[in-house]
Amino acid sequence: MFRNQMPRYEVLSDDAMAVLDRGWRRILTEIGVEFVSERALDLFRKAGQDVDGQTVRLDPDFVLEQVAKAPREFDVQARNQANDVHIGGDHMAFGAVYGPPFVRQGEVRRDATLDDFRNFSRLAQSFPELDSAGGVICEPNDAPLDSRHLDMTYALQTLTDKIYMGNVVSGPNARDTIAMSEILFGGREAIERTPATLSLINCNSPLRWDDRMLDAQFEYSAANQAVVLTPFLLMGAMSPVTIPATLVQQIAEALSGIALSQLIRPGAPVVFGSFLSNIDMQSGAPCFGTPESAIGLFCTGQIARRFGLPFRTGGGLTSSQMPDAQAAYEAMMTLLPTFLAGANWVMHSAGWLEGGLVACYEKFVIDIELLRMLQVEFTPLEIDEASLAFDAHAEVGRGGHFLGAAHTLERFRTCFYRPLLSSSANYERWMRTGARDAAARAAEISQRTLAEYEPPPLDDAIRAELEEYVVKRRAELGD
Amino acid sequence: MFRNQMPRYEVLSDDAMAVLDRGWRRILTEIGVEFVSERALDLFRKAGQDVDGQTVRLDPDFVLEQVAKAPREFDVQARNQANDVHIGGDHMAFGAVYGPPFVRQGEVRRDATLDDFRNFSRLAQSFPELDSAGGVICEPNDAPLDSRHLDMTYALQTLTDKIYMGNVVSGPNARDTIAMSEILFGGREAIERTPATLSLINCNSPLRWDDRMLDAQFEYSAANQAVVLTPFLLMGAMSPVTIPATLVQQIAEALSGIALSQLIRPGAPVVFGSFLSNIDMQSGAPCFGTPESAIGLFCTGQIARRFGLPFRTGGGLTSSQMPDAQAAYEAMMTLLPTFLAGANWVMHSAGWLEGGLVACYEKFVIDIELLRMLQVEFTPLEIDEASLAFDAHAEVGRGGHFLGAAHTLERFRTCFYRPLLSSSANYERWMRTGARDAAARAAEISQRTLAEYEPPPLDDAIRAELEEYVVKRRAELGD
Asked: What GO terms describe the biological role, i.e. biological process, of this protein (chains A, B) (predicted)?
């Protein structure tokens, strides 16, 4: 998997950090956090925190004690060991878009279906730049509502052999994910030893954790499955309109959720989550790929490292309706800072369009190209005497060219990044080959990739057991 | 003008720097640089350097002595003082695309004309993100060949009141630029006191400076006009296929050109130039917005600072044929690193398409949007107690929203970046307003901007004198 051994881009001074530190402490102490869960309130009460109705006012030092119990880094296992993922340190893991109810393919925008879900799973399996198809790659609207989490988990488990995210719609859904993971990985002990899932627990920002997500968190943390505690911050709506105020809220929310996981099971793997952008103050619409979101990214990385926690943020975010120039520059405006910040778990790395409402086949391929480029860009240069290629200079001298130099001929196949999607064809050649823009070429690549997809091998008995579980549970759920 | 007070992103260790340092010294000493100019060879000979035919083998310490005579920072004056530019330090100045023979507008790609040149000048004047229209914004193919430099200079001087670049096709052309600048700024002394032009002197890489560019350099440096000494490096063709080998060549070339300027006139203002990307090793086509070019950018900034020189690099480069997703992500892949590297003079900041063969109206607007976003992104956050907006948190509490908070209402007009081009409209609204992609919206913005353009005021006598000069010189040149 990709390790980012380039320097981190850090913008917060020690003074700024100290101000932020006072800020989140004050929020936890004076305003507190709402937990819509009796179990959570009980745990905090027993731990001596100030519980008032559903509001918990937390002692910041108690929170830090809990945070210190979380692992700084951890593994998530895939059914193909070669695809195991390490979360933390200089490792960066990438998952596809998560959550869109709609799909765009070419000019058609429509409700997403289970077939789309499967197709995106196949795409995620096919591109080595992705460590995971993610979780809800798109909402399979044609699958029965109460049991579609089974369909999604089954698709992720069978069509890919990479890590996957667990369902978080409710505690029972989380239990199903865990049960199916036990089947796939050979029992509870196998997944408790090394987590087999990584699941997204969103805060209902500001400062409130809702019951269903908390129920899922209880299941996952109790089973030692990783959770990503993510403040959901569109500045202006879920947080104040200044970045520092939003950062302290983000810290307060993320740490309060992480503290809960540690009360559920000390040492349970957690990720400091961030989903931070802003709304358009005229229309109220969410904006992505903004300067504010990039600044938030730089700061979040530095903050998470300060707490010794792996962190999640970034992706190829955009507000654009089409896989056009805006989609591309906004995605790059988020993804390049994601690498500069050294995010450990990058959701929404491929396919995100229209503020996350749409999973787009063409954008998926565009984002894969961005990831491929950035993975090369953030690989340290080796600079030693040999790399200076003095012999090449001596051979070519002044005013010549290096096309035929021995140094060139030895390296020409691998010396530069070779694009998946980008074209450097000249005008005549580009016209001759159809004058297609990047979106049209991306469409062709996505179709070709799906046509060439081969499912990763899976033991028939395990597949049968998974199917049986899905059938049985679907019946129980009345779908 | 924009000052980049954010941290620089530096990737070269001291050890790496030491290796590079040995490398460029060895190239200058053992391979040398070709200067196709008797005047240049004379200057080097008199300064005690080893001149063999047209090849000068340079003592690296002598070169550094010359480099030390160059100013670390300097001003370039505009005819509107408010548009004066400071080159160096944390200042970043941005000019439009330079050199394209073709123009693209919508689906039409055609030879560029003088009208296009004037239109791009107007666009550059209209957007405050640009400090300059640059120089050869596009090649005015319908203007007489031998005198079109007069038309271009006149357009830059009259349609904009920003700084401009001088013509470098020949010594006489440079003299014309200087003469016209004397008219505009009130005499030779006025432009010698503070340079009124900044001109691009390209190296014929590897390691060769050609006669016509050198003649122009002689004119400009003698008149204390700034020159940008720029190795032209498409790795694989003009330099070896490894980045370190290219970096040492770049240093050798840039410093040799800078040394010449200092021999022509000690203290003459110079800029360490960089134009560094790679070719596609299969087709030989130049590639832009590549990972390699971004790495080159990071390194070049660090290297130029080490020599105490302002530097030029970056821009919105792309190989794409259309203002599509590829054009946008490649431009961002170059521009964001340009800010991270803190480039002082950024050519090709707006309008570049098709590897620099095309000036594109839509891409111009797309690039302006990128510049606007990045100028906000690279403005330091103020983090103090007040910025934490604790009152807003106290007002909203847990589970509410900030849309109506007092803190929000006081700031909602200015709190976030407001886009020029990007749309965050939801699907229904976007469909209702024409379902236009970013390129279509950019076309409309460029047309509206041209329609609303107002020429900056210019003294009638000066305008008449400039016109008279153009007419007289055109006659002398036989056009």
From this structure: methylation
Q: Taking all residues of chain B, what is their mean pLDDT, rounded to a whole number?
A: 98
State phi, psi for A85 to the nearest 5 degrees.
Answer: -125, 140
- Region B392-404: mean pLDDT is 96
Encode pLDDT of B84-116 as tens digits: 999 999 999 999 999 999 999 999 999 999 999
Instruction: Compute the nearest-CA separation of B354 from chain A (Å).
Output: 8
Please write the tens of the pLDDT for every residue from B24-34: 999 999 999 99
pLDDT band at residue B139 under the 50/70/90 scheme: very high
Q: Is B241 on the interface with A (CB under 8 A)?
A: yes
Contacts with B, A 166-195, CB within 8 Å = none
The helices-and-strands tally (H runs, E runs) of chain A is 17, 21
Residue of A nearest to B426 (CA): A285
Residue of A nearest to B413 (CA): A281
User: Taking the alpha carbons of B184, B189, B190, B195 in that order, is the dihedral positive or negative?
Assistant: positive
Chain B residues in contact with A383 by the CB 8 A cut-off are: 12, 15-16, 19-20, 244
Is the separation of the CB atoms in A169 and A212 below 8 Å?
A: yes
Q: What is the pLDDT of residue A58?
A: 98
For A293-333, the DSSP string reads: HHHHHHHHHHHHHHTT--EE---S----SSSSHHHHHHHHH
Residue B68, number of CB atoms within 10 A of its CB = 11
Of the candidates B328, B419, B424, which has its C-beta nearest A325's C-beta?
A: B328
With a CB cutoff of 8 Å and minimum separation 6, the contacts of B269 are B70, B71, B74, B87, B195, B224, B225, B226, B227
C-alpha span between B373 and A322 (Å, rounded): 20
Per DSSP, the three-state class of A85 is strand
> What are the φ and ψ backbone dihedral angles of B108, each rounded to 5 degrees?
-100, 125
How is residue A32 written in tokens? 């507190």
The answer, yes or no, to whether the previous bond of B206 is cis (omega within 30 of 0) is: yes
B433 close to A (CB below 8 A):
no
Indicate left, alpha or beta for A48 from its phi (over 0: left) and psi (-120 to 50: alpha). Answer: left
Asked if A20 reaches chain B (Cβ–Cβ under 8 Å), the answer is yes
Could you write out the DSSP letters of every residue in A257-282?
Answer: HHHHHHHHSTT--EEEE-EEEEE-TT
Q: Kindly report whether the global pTM for this prediction surpasses the value 0.95.
A: yes
Neighbours of B38 (CB within 10 A): 11
Within an 8 Å CB–CB cutoff, is residue A53 touching chain B? no
User: Residue B390: its chain A contacts at CB < 8 A?
Assistant: 23, 26-27, 245
For the record, the structure tokens of B386 come out as 């007040």
Query: Does residue A206 have a cis bond before it (omega within 30 degrees)?
Result: yes
CB contact under 8 Å between B320 and A421, yes or no, is: no
Closest residue in chain A to residue B375, using alpha carbons only:
A291
Chain A 56-95, residues with CB within 8 Å of chain B CB atoms:
none
**Mean pLDDT confidence for B223-252:** 98
Query: Which run of H or of E encompasses B339?
Result: helix B325-341
Contact criterion met (CB < 8 Å) for A422 and B30: no
Chain B contact set for A415 (CB, 8 A): 235-236, 241-242, 278, 281
Does B284 sit within 8 Å of A390, measured CB to CB? Answer: no
Query: What pLDDT does A71 receive?
Result: 98
Task: List, in order of start, the domains of chain A with CATH numbers.
Answer: 2-9+67-377 (3.20.20.480)
| Other Cβ atoms within 10 Å of B210 Cβ, number | 16
| For chain B, percent of residues with pLDDT exceeding 90 | 100
Phi, psi of A203 (to 5 degrees): -80, 145
For chain A, list residues with pLDDT below 50. Answer: none
Q: What angle do CA A106, A111, A112 make, to 5 degrees?
A: 80
B20: nearest Cα among B205, B194, B252: B252
